[in-house]
Every structure is written in C-alpha cells, then in structure tokens.
Amino acid sequence: MANGADAKDAAMAKVRPGHKREYEFAFRAHSEICGSLGPNPVL
After folding, report:
1. Which of 2, 6, 15, 18 is deepest in the core (most CB within 10 A)?
2. Please, what sign has the CA dihedral across residues 10, 39, 28, 33?
3. pLDDT tens track of the chain, all 43 residues?
4. Exposed/middle/buried for 12, CB within 10 Å: 0-12, 13-18, 19+?
C-alpha cells in the first residue's frame, strides 16, 4: 500500500472495535483454508 502498511492492517483499520475478534477469527480461518488447499497436487 502507499503508506507501507500491509493488507491485513488496512483491513483491520476498517473493522469496528467490537467486531475485531470475529474478523480476526474469520481472517485466520480463511488463511488456513487457502493455505491447506493451495499446495495440494491435483489427482
């Protein structure tokens, strides 16, 4: 990004404080799913 912040920090800045925990959980779950599906070979 232009100010040097990464995408996660930019996204977190847009989340209301009360929803930060839920957003962090969803972000982590999405990252784990994408990471587990990415490197698998196609059979």
Report:
1. 15
2. positive
3. 455 556 666 555 565 666 778 878 888 887 777 666 656 555 5
4. middle
Q: Helix or strand or coil: residue 8?
A: helix
* CA pair distance 3, 18, nearest whole angstrom: 25
Rounded Cα gap, residues 15 and 19, in angstroms: 6
Which of 17, 21, 27, 3 is CA-nearest to residue 35?
27
User: Is this structure's pTM higher than 0.90?
Assistant: no
Quick one: tokens of 3?
Answer: 């100010």
Q: Is there a contact between 2 and 8 (Cβ–Cβ < 8 Å)? A: no
